[in-house]
Every structure is written in C-alpha cells, then in structure tokens.
Amino acid sequence: MGTGCGGRVWLCGVRSKVVRVGVDVLAWLATLTGAAGIALHFSQSSSRLLVLVAAGAPYLMSSALVGAVAFAAVRRWIGAAVAIVVVAAAVWTQTPLYTGDSGDSGDGPAVRVMQANLLFDGADPRALVDEVRARNIVLLTVNELTPAGVEDLGRAGLDQLLPHRYLSPGRTATGTGIWSSYPLSETVEFDGFVLNQLSATAAIPDVGPVTVYAFHPVPPVYGTHVWADELSRLREILDRSPASRPAIVGGDFNATYDHAQYRSMLSGRFGDAAEQSGAGHLVTYPTDKRWPPLVGIDHILVAGGRAVATETVGLPGADHRALVARIHLNRERK
C-alpha cells in the first residue's frame, strides 16, 4: 500500500513539519500586522511613513483575523488566543463608527449638508448641482474651488438653489467655498494656512445662528509636520466656536478616522457625522484610479446637534466622492 510520500514515512513528517512552520510564521506575521494597525490608530507620530500607513490601519488590523484562522488550523491555541485578542482590540477601535452616538440628539429641524472636493475644474458642475437639487442640500462646503469653477457652478444653477455664498477661490487646490440656502454673516478667512479655511454664520429658521466651517488642511505628503500643525490649529479654531450655537464643519481633512490627529478634533463638543449616524467606514478617495476608493478623508463634523444619516455620493470628474449628512440641530433657546 502507498503512503503518499513515495514509501518514505520520514518524508511525510518533514513535509508536515515544514508546512506547520510556514503556517506558524504566516500566522504570527498576520497577527503582528494587525497589532501594528492598532498601534498606528493611536500613534501621534509625525513620521511621514507612519502617517501615510495609518490611513490604511483598518486593512492592517483585519490581517489579525487571518492569523487567528491560521493558528486554529494547526491547533496553535496560544497563538490563536493572542490573535483573537488582537482582533477584539481592532474591533473595539472601529466599533464607534458602526454603533452610532447616543449623545446630543438635536431637537430641531433636519438640515442636509454636502461636502465636496471639486478637483480644481475637474468635477462636472451640472452633476454637482443635480445632486444638490435632488437631495435638498441647504449647506454646501467645497474644496479645490477655482474662479472658473465658480462661474461653471453658477451657469449650472447652483446660485439659484443656494443663493447665499462666501467664497475664496484660488489656483488649483487652494480655493474653498460655502454655499447656503440661508443668509450668511460674520464671514472669516483664517490666516496662516497653505490652503484657504473659511467660516460664516448661517441664520437657519427655527434654529438660529449656526456657525459653518469649510476646512482643507494640507495633505501629509506636503509635509507631515505642517499637516499635523494645521490640524492642531483647526482644532483650536473649533475650540473657540461659540458654545451657545450649533456648528457644522465640512472639509477634506486629508486625514482618516484612524489618524489620532484627526480624532483629537472629536474630543470636545464636535462629533463626526459618520460616527454619530453609525454609517461605518465611508471611503471617499481616490475615485480616479483603476481601483475603488480606499480611505475616508472627507468629513462632516457637528456640534449642537446630531447627524442621523451620512452617505457618500459620486461626482463625475472629481477624485473624491462627496459626503452628505442629514443633521438635526438644536433649536434656538429663547
């Protein structure tokens, strides 16, 4: 009778041992990769490599599941237990995005907000205007707004839908803008940033004054120290936001939920709309590649209210998906 090893039992044993060692190595590498993803989630490092890799932390974390399965397959129960602990820790870091925030529920009317990066003049202006109309958007924040983009959006009918605006267009990525259904006042352009950062106050009926911010810090590839510094200074701006009124922030933050520098903005009165509504990972970038978008760097933040639904929307010609949130703001206290 054959043994399957050419009659050599010892050869079967050697092959089996090699396979087990190979599986062990794979399992430990996968588990350690998952642990590295967790470490990056909490890292405050300004190292360019670590900041860029942290954007993909959830993908790294998921490899720990592979480690757990591999350990179990070869009955390495201690390794399996370690991998399961790593999986549990990874799930704990991501769970807030899926469970929703039970905090401030917002007792006022719902407003629909959109954040869009236009890729200079790349985004189809009519497609954007059609989305604003179809979704009853009342506040729109945009990044990478050029003077030509302002004209194109006007010709496509945006100013008829959202007649109030505060814009600071610029060359390539510098331009930023706010369009609104409601009158805008107290307009501010913040100095000292590479790209344009804006705020205005919208007078929303049955709510009162609402501070609206349009942010666009530089990407980390520009310089991670500059990126981290701009995120820190934007947080300081939000910390100075009047606590007596609601606020909404839209922007391409060039940072994901897994960047601790971004999450520091959520440690005060502001919350991430995707987290508040339990929308999960909403990937927005890039949309101009052969592969689908991988990371969520566009965000809407809310204070004095709560997002109840958040989703992404495709924009032909842009390299980001737009973000749309339905937000219940607190009513004006009289």
Automatic annotation (TrEMBL):
One of its GO terms (molecular function) is endonuclease activity. Keywords: Endonuclease, Hydrolase, Membrane, Nuclease, Transmembrane, Transmembrane helix. InterPro entries: Endo/exonuclease/phosphatase. The chain crosses the membrane at residues 25-42, 49-71, 77-93. Residues 114-317 form the Endonuclease/exonuclease/phosphatase domain. It comes from the Bacteria. This is Endonuclease/exonuclease/phosphatase family protein. It comes from Nocardia iowensis.
